[in-house]
Design goal:
The protein is mostly helical and 66 residues long. It has a domain at 25-66. Helix content is 50%, strand content 0%. It contains four helices and no strands. The protein has helices spanning 6-9, 27-38, 42-52, 55-60.
């Protein structure tokens, strides 16, 4: 296995951006995970995504019904 520079190892990435390695986790899988972990429906998550434009922000939004 090739050694990686320490800054790449500590950046929580699999490799530098120029190598083009991705985790391959699809948006639909992330939407399902957010829905299951927050108790919100897929429809609500998708509407929030359309409004916010970022799944990270959608995941951080607390459901007012809770």
């Amino acid at each position: 296995m090739a050694r990686r520079p320490a800054h790449v190892t500590n950046s929580e990435k699999l490799s530098p951006d120029y190598e083009g390695i991705e985790l391959g986790i699809g948006e639909s899988l992330l939407i399902k995970a957010i829905a299951e972990s927050t108790g919100r429906s897929l429809t609500v998550i998708k509407a929030d995504l359309k409004r916010e434009g970022d799944l990270g922000l959608v995941a951080m939004v607390r459901d007012p019904a809770c």
